[in-house]
Amino acid sequence: MLRLGVCIIAVLSARLAQAQVELAPPHTDDPIVISADQASTWKEGSYNVWLLRGRCVVKQGFNTCRAQDAVLWIKPGNGTAKKPSKLIAYLEGEVQIEAGRKPELRQASLPTKSERGWLGRFYSSAKVEIHTPRPRPEPPVKPAVWANAVAARDPDSSNITHTQFRPANGAAAASGDANAAASGAAVVAPTLRVRQLRIFQRGDLPPHVEWKSNQATDEGVAVITGGVQILIDGLPQVGQLDIVADKVVIWTVGRIDAGVQEKFQDEEIPLEVYMEGNVVFRQQDRVIYADRMYYDVKNNTGTVLGAEITSPVPKFGGLMRLKADLIRQIDENTFVARNSFLTTSRMARPSYRLQSQEIRVYDRQRRVVDPFTGVPKRGPDHEEVIEHDQMVSAKNNLMFAGPVPVFYWPRFSTNLEEPSTLLAGGYFQYDKIFGLWTEAEVDAYQLLGIENEPEGLDWTFTVSDLTKRGFGGGTDLLINRSSFFGLQGRTEGYVNVWGLDDHGLDNLGYTRMNITHPGPFRGRIFGQFRQQLKDGFQLTGEFAKQSDYNFLEQYYEAEFDQHKDETTDIELKKYDNNTSYSAYGQVRLNPFFTQTNWLPRLDHYMSGTSLLGDRITWYEHTNVGYGQFERIGLPPDPQDLQHFQFLPWELSGSHQGDRVATRHEIDAPFELGPVKVVPYAEGELAQWGQDLNNADVGRAFGQAGVRSSVMFWASNPNVESNLFNLHGLAHKVVFDVDASASDANRRVTSLVLYDPVQDNAQYRFERRFMSLDYGGTLPLKYDPRIYDLRAGLQNFVSSPSTEIADRFAAVRLGMRNRLQTKRGPVGHRRIIDYVVLDTSAVYFPNPNRDNFGAPWGMVFYDLRWHVGDRLTVLSDGGYDFFAGGQRTYSVGATLSRPPRINLYLGIRSLNGPFTYNVLTFSQSYQLSPKWLVSLNTQVPLGKNRNIGENFTFTRVGESFITSIAAYVDGGKNNAGVNFMLQPRFLGQTMLSRIGGANVPLTNPNMFE
User: Fold this and answer.
1) Which of 249, 32, 213, 215 is nearest to 122 (CA)?
2) Confidence of residue 177 (pLDDT cuts 50, 70, 90)
3) Residue 939, pLDDT above cutoff 90
4) Strands 128-131 and 32-35, sheet pairing
5) Is the dihedral of CA 56, 58, 59, 62 positive or negative?
6) Do the strands 318-331 and 128-131 form a parallel or antiparallel pair, or are they unpaired?
7) Distance between CA 714 and CA 694 in Å, rounded?
8) Is the separation of the CB atoms in 424 and 990 below 8 Å?
9) What integer is the mean pLDDT of 70-87?
10) Which helix (H) or strand (E) holds 641?
11) Nearest-CA neighbor of 878 among 858, 852, 855?
């Protein structure tokens, strides 16, 4: 009975070991996620086989399986539930099964650290995700977990002896089975991890090998002379070692002689290598050049004399070079150098170098912690995310430019993937407005000694000195992250803070020179932020505060003229197919601009909803909000005040109140043969708490019309012209028309303009334009509200301005022409646009009401004639027929011969409210791969005043880009020169174009 009980217990135990733990069936569309520290992969029939080592995780849905070793067979599917991807997984060593167990079984789980193996099957119609370091090929000798996995997958094969091929000279010795090695018989794969040693000759003659050994221990020394190359594979985390030297001495176990070209060893067997003479030591992408070097393969340590290490830096696009008298390798990823220098220059005498008493280069592994929440980040398998930082830390550092020391800093540390030094850039400029402007930008993390830099946050400090204005400084923060404050989603942002103690006068151009300011301290705080959130949500915010009326125009003129208005607002928006919802709030912090406070505003957009089986299409926009229209304050300087005027919608002061509006459009598209016809009707109901007379008003607006378009084309493949590079000709033209009539019970000129229709820079020009040319009153024909009506802004449900709508009638005509030909080598010609001509015009049925008495207006054209692959003729223009209407045109040509020359010459003419004609010429020319020159000039025709010129001369070196520019600004009666020295090794994208020409990444063929 006792024997029978023992047998029953044994059978039940075996059954339990076979059944093990069953997982709850996941959804087939749940992805299978796999991760491990090391991986090897190969093909076996229709399966992809993966051998994983170290922290192996297989996860699907709520089921998570962990172990130290794993063997996976993966059969890819076609992405459907009928043919999903199949995964057979065998796990061994500290197996841990978590979550998702079938509750009805109520069986005990595997122990927390079980040594028993576990076999499971997974199916998924989604993609199988594998997160491992770069996998190695199939190992020549497989570990015991492979044999166990094969036996577990096919229990009937347990009586079969599983064999693996083993070279007779090494593998058997590693396992201690000398007889098997001698006979060459197949043996069971060992449980030890194996490295492979291969020896090759370096030149034409084979190397000389002398072996000296201790017979008792089989330890010995191999002295190899005459030039040799040694490859060592199978090293965990290190990868392959490639050693080349004139002379090599090897300490190890197991004989090495002239007949040995390949040897297998257990990775625990000592292997030490001494190299001498023209040493080249490669470890993955890292290369060490040395006179002499010692390396302990087992412990990943070494010492290098007369050394030079080059390592790739991805963001730099080149190599970082470390040279030293003595370098010690402490482990596989840490080097300590004495009396050394660091540079990216490949020349024997580098143009710059960072010389240090001690430099430590290392790969630091660290947990990724969100700097705002303090919580460690976790990956898809819920394991903590570990980052590998290639870091450089140095003491007593002296920066040299050539032989001259230029900067000292006692200690710094930087990440090689995004290299930075304390000094991030420098700028020098001299002109009549600012004097000598000297500016230095420093890395904030280096200055503050912060080594654990938050991911995706680039932070710098700026120190500025302007001899005619004062001393200043600020900071910049650039945000580019995959999450923020613990919220997942792509996040981008920018923060700029800069100010100065300004004791000078502003110069803003004609009639605005020597402008006083409230001062002395002037500056701004500006930030923009956007984060993509889950489920289609998007969060956008902006903050803008300037010190005074003219600060932005004086110190950030390009932003003031060309960028969007700087506001303080926040918006939460939700996208859902063709629908969007948003909540928006805005507060005016700068009283020297006209803006609207929204407290708050809600918007709903719907675009292109199909009704009645696609017979009807519906568009909609509804907005509800409470707005405070805040009028601009008076400028403090008398010169500004002399030509300052309030715009027509600002005359009655500030206003506030609710605004509710809903606008809809219904389209009924159909086709008449080749003609597409779209009758449509648009209507809106809106209400304002206050109009310009402070009255509560409502407006009903309606519009009806029809849009239509038709395309014609013709081709003649027989057209040939070598002079004009024509090989066949095709003409495609599209005619379109939009005829509409609208009515409203409120005029647009009676409403508060809560939604701006122009930028602050244009408004500032219009205020002076009213005073200088029209005595303080803006003619109605130049009112931007009327221009927007004539341009058809009210025709769109998604119009950016609710107020722009009125009684109106127009027929809008358009014609879009494409003349196409073929160019390129015979047999490989491509279709290109030879001539592009777009034209449009508007007919006004009621010209006295809608177009100041002229039945036709707003005639525009845009012409591009690609005469050749390098020569293009450009022209555009616009015309209104009423007295004083706009009459503009431009004509010019561009010539491009990449990468040497880019040239433009053209004339632009502006007539109407005033007349101005200007000749523009710009060119950039690459004299050689090292020298660039560019020239830009604008000359007014018929005027004595100059507009301005700019001449730039640039030198492209291996490590630096040096540019010097001279410029004249006729409008400000200013002239100056600036000097810029930009390092190429910091990898800024701004360096991709300098002086109008492409600047390539650094490479060893670019010499100073």
Assistant:
1) 32
2) very low
3) no
4) parallel
5) negative
6) unpaired
7) 60
8) no
9) 86
10) helix 638-642
11) 858
Residue 171 CA to residue 98 CA, distance in Å, equals 38
Helix (H, G, I), strand (E, B) or coil at 151: helix
* Contacts (Cβ under 8 Å, ≥6 apart) of 675: 708, 709, 710
CA 439 vs CA 133, 953, 977, 978: distances in Å: 43, 20, 15, 11
CA–CA separation, 736 and 838 (whole Å): 11
At residue 252, the 3 state secondary structure works out as: strand
Q: Please give the torsion angle defined by the CA atoms of residues 139, 141, 142 and 148, in that order, rounded to the nearest 10 degrees.
A: 160
Q: Which helix (H) or strand (E) holds 699?
A: strand 697-721
Cβ atoms 98, 118 nearer than 8 A: no
Query: Among 46-55, 265-274, 501-510, whose mean pLDDT is lowest?
Result: 265-274
Token digits of residue 749 = 């000129």
Phi, psi of 795 (to 5 degrees): -75, -5
Q: CA-CA distances (angstroms) from residue 9 to 4, 19, 110?
A: 9, 15, 18
Nearest to 416 by CA among 318, 340, 341: 318
Residue type at position 362: Y
Partnered with residue 701 across adjacent β-strands are 684, 744
Under 8 Å between Cβ of 214 and 250: no
Gap between the Cα atoms of 811 and 795, Å rounded: 12
Residue bearing tokens 């029939």: 45
**CA 323 from centroid of its chain's CA atoms:** 33
pLDDT tens-digit series, residues 142-161: 888 888 888 888 765 444 33
Tell me which residue has tokens 């996998």: 135
pLDDT of residue 585: 97
Structure-block tokens of residue 61: 């849905």
User: Which residue, among 118, 96, 117, 113, has the nearest Cα to 381 in the 3D structure?
Assistant: 96
- Residue 367 sits at the vertex; the CA angle it makes with 309 and 334, to the nearest 5 degrees, is 20
- Structure pTM? 0.67
The vertex-752 CA angle with 748 and 756, nearest 5°, equals 90
Q: What percent of the chain lies above the pLDDT cut of 90?
A: 41
CA distance 765 to 784: 12
Rounded to an integer, what distance in angstroms lies between the CA atom of residue 685 and that of residue 702? 9
Helix then strand count (H, E) for the chain reads 11, 52
The count of residues in the chain is: 1008
8 A C-beta contact, residue 454 and residue 446: no
